[in-house]
Design goal:
The protein has one domain: Peroxisomal Thiolase, Chain A, domain 1 (3-Layer(aba) Sandwich), CATH 3.40.47.10. The strands form 3 sheets. It has an 8-stranded mixed beta sheet with strand order 5-4-6-7-1-8-12-11, with helices on both faces. Strands 3-2-13 form a 3-stranded mixed beta sheet. Strands 9-10 form a two-stranded antiparallel ribbon. The protein is an alpha+beta fold. The longest helix is centred in the middle third of the chain and has 23 residues, at 208-230. It is globular. It is 40% helix and 19% strand. It binds 3-hydroxy-3-methylglutaryl-coenzyme A.
């Protein structure tokens, strides 16, 4: 059976940076540690005035194609995953293909193009579509290009404002992949939920606290469903566990939940209920409170054990290094978590070839998907080709007034002039001359 998976990736960050401790916290009257320690975020990436989901996605895809020496005829499928689309008819992949055709002799007329939407999980769903297309033998020797691109903005004053971000991840899906091999080991947790939604509106309506509970509930279901395919899992089965990362503090909770499930600690609920005489009847609220408190204490105890701390530091913490600096990229988020982990391993000289990753994707609305991947033998070369640290360092550091101006401009207020910001050469930029695909 031919291996199919991710052959290569490129990451493209928005060119502006909002520092949460230095710039955001003082204006909000908050302790900077709420962001750096509580949420686990140092900064957010923002799109400059000349950037949008198309330019970020096209720039990431162009660099990927150049690095891999690809021509349009090598790509048989272009899928974009986004929840920031501006067109309800044409998929964003047609705009990105249009950009790429400006710099290549050939065209993408032969390529199937589409757009996947299911909040943040759409990036992983596009990978799955590409995997299925190749496995079904419909690719005629061609690879698939998957681009996850978003500007994750919240209304000013919304608690989500601290978790914003903008960037794109381009991924090449192919036979005999260099980076990771995908597998049929996969599980889902899916339910109709309304804690995070954007019905014809620029900023999401979010019940932030509930969204965290929904994330954990769906992730737990997905893990159980995954085990119905893979058999029981153990925390040491996986080199890394990249989760969807709206902010690292969320992953801290997901990591603990996953660990607890994998060490089969859950019967403790029954013991605790017996100990405090709790009967799960709705009228018995006093008992429910003590029960929930006992569970919280138990989780706190578990999270302070040496075994858990060592496991988390080795298996989950390394997935957060890029996220901390860029915020939530929605569809790209879990894919930068995977890249962070592999990048850390390369920097620390860890040999990962043949080792397994457990990837936990999530999209509001809501669905979680857990799948297993195997690290391929050329992974190190692919990861070392990324320049995300240089891109992050090169971002323009916004002051608060500039941040508000940029935020307003991306909220469709194109009357705001951004003349202070420079437009780079040699990249696709949004020229704003009336035609949406007029990019240079
Ligand atoms: P908040 O309510 O302002 O924050 O916003 P908080 O008061 O809950 O504090 C956050 C954490 O910081 C807490 O940690 C505090 O204790 C801690 P926790 O108790 O949870 O472990 N903290 C401090 N720590 C150290 N020093 C201090 C300090 N002060 C507080 N001084 C909220 C949090 C998540 C509600 C907000 O950011 C939000 O609404 N975010 C947007 C929604 C979101 O990201 N949800 C995550 C799950 S849903 C998801 O992932 C899907 C999504 O990506 C969309 C999609 O799929 O398309 C969002």
């Amino acid at each position: 059976m031919t291996a199919v998976g991710i052959d290569a990736i490129e990451i493209w960050t928005g060119k502006l940076k909002l520092d949460l401790a230095e710039t955001f916290a003082p204006e909000k009257g908050e302790d900077p540690e709420k962001y750096t320690k509580g949420l686990g975020l140092h900064a957010s990436s923002f799109p400059d005035a000349h950037e949008d989901i198309v330019t970020m996605g096209a720039n990431a895809a162009k660099r990927l194609m150049e690095r891999k020496g690809l021509e349009p005829e090598d790509i048989g499928r272009i899928d974009v995953a986004t929840e920031s689309a501006f067109d309800n008819s044409k998929p964003v992949s047609t705009y990105i293909a249009g950009c790429l055709e400006q710099v290549y002799d050939g065209d993408f007329h032969h390529a199937n193009k589409g757009e996947r939407k299911f909040a943040c999980i759409a990036g992983t769903q596009s990978l799955d579509d590409a995997y299925n297309w190749i496995k079904a033998g419909r690719n005629r020797g061609r690879a698939a290009l998957v681009v996850a691109t978003d500007t994750a903005l919240y209304a000013r004053g919304d608690p989500g404002e601290a978790t914003q971000g903008a960037g794109a991840v381009a991924m090449l899906i192919d036979e005999d992949p260099n980076l990771v091999e995908l597998s049929t080991e996969q599980g889902y947790g899916s339910a109709d939920e309304t804690d995070f939604l954007k019905p014809n509106q620029q900023f999401p309506s979010v019940d932030g606290k509930r969204s965290m509970q929904v994330y954990l509930a769906r992730m737990r279901e997905a893990l159980e469903d995954f085990e119905s395919v893979s058999g029981d899992t153990h925390p040491d089965d996986f080199a890394y566990i990249p989760f969807h990362t709206p902010f690292p503090g969320m992953v801290r909770k997901a990591g603990l939940l996953g660990y607890r499930h994998m060490i089969r600690d859950t019967p403790v609920e029954e013991e605790l209920a017996e100990e405090i005489g709790f009967q799960p009847r709705e009228e018995n609220f006093e008992d429910r409170e003590s029960y929930e408190e006992a569970i919280r204490d138990h989780m706190d105890d578990l999270s302070s054990t040496e075994a858990y701390r060592d496991w988390y530091a080795a298996t989950v913490e390394p997935t957060l290094s890029i996220s901390r600096e860029v915020g939530n990229w929605y569809t790209g988020s879990v894919h930068i978590a995977r890249a962070s982990a592999l990048k850390t391993a390369a920097e620390e000289g860890i040999d990962l070839t043949g080792q397994k990753l457990l990837v936990g994707s999530y999209g509001s609305g809501a669905q979680a998907e857990i799948h297993a991947e195997t690290v391929a033998d050329e992974w190190e070369d692919e990861i070392e080709a990324l320049n995300i640290d240089d891109q992050n360092d090169a971002r323009y550091d916004l002051d608060f007034e500039e941040y508000e101006k940029v935020h307003d401009r991306h909220n469709h207020d194109k009357t705001i002039e951004m003349e202070d910001f420079t437009v780079p050469d040699g990249e696709f930029v949004f020229t704003g001359r009336g035609r949406m695909n007029e990019r240079l």
